[in-house]
């Protein structure tokens, strides 16, 4: 056997030994990547509502200049008189927080 073949054989044996040692040093199970937090139905409904409020630019009509966002009270002129926009905050007493789906 030639000298080059011996060196090549030794290198292959060392590579196999190194791979085996590395395998033995690894933990039993590789760590799993972080899973995104489970999203429940309430979170999905809130996110959808926020998206729709932004897309519809609800704040433009339901907020008085300098007032609380979505608190209503702004007069909207119409041909038959002023219409005051409602409070659409999630407040149970003054907003729509206590509304049921039947009241929409």
Give the radius of gyration.
Answer: 33 Å
Low-confidence stretches at least 5 residues in length (pLDDT < 50)? none
Mean pLDDT value: 83
* Shape type: rod-shaped
Terminus-to-terminus distance: 89 Å
Order of helices and strands: HHHEE
Helix content: 40-55%
**Tally of individual helices:** 3
DSSP strand (E) fraction?
5-15%
State the major sheet. Answer: 2 strands, antiparallel
| Largest sheet, spatial ordering of strands | 1-2
Look at the helices and sheets and give the structural class.
mainly alpha
The number of E-state strands comes to 2
Question: Overview of this structure, please?
Answer:
By secondary structure, the protein is mainly alpha-helical. The protein has a domain at 50-98. 41% of the residues lie in helices and 8% in strands. The chain has three helices and two strands; from the N terminus they run H-H-H-E-E. The chain has helices at 3-25, 41-55, 58-62; strands spanning 75-78, 81-84. The N and C termini lie far apart (89 Å).
Highlighted features:
104 residues, mainly alpha, 8% strand, 3 helices, 2 strands, two-stranded antiparallel sheet
Task: Provide the fold topology.
Layout: H1 3-25, H2 41-55, H3 58-62, E1 75-78, E2 81-84
Antiparallel strand pairs: 1-2
Summarize the structure.
By secondary structure, this protein is mainly alpha-helical. It has helices spanning 3-25, 41-55, 58-62; strands spanning 75-78, 81-84. The termini are far apart.
């Amino acid at each position: 056997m030639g000298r080059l073949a011996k060196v090549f054989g030794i290198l292959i044996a060392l590579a196999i030994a190194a791979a085996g040692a590395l395998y033995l040093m690894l933990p039993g199970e590789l760590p799993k990547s972080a899973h995104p937090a489970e999203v429940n139905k309430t979170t999905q409904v809130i996110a959808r509502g926020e998206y729709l409020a932004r897309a519809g630019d609800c704040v433009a009509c339901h907020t008085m200049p300098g007032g609380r966002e979505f608190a209503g009270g702004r007069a909207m002129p119409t041909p038959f008189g002023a219409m005051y926009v409602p409070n659409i905050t999630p407040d149970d007493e003054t907003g729509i927080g206590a509304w049921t789906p039947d009241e929409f």
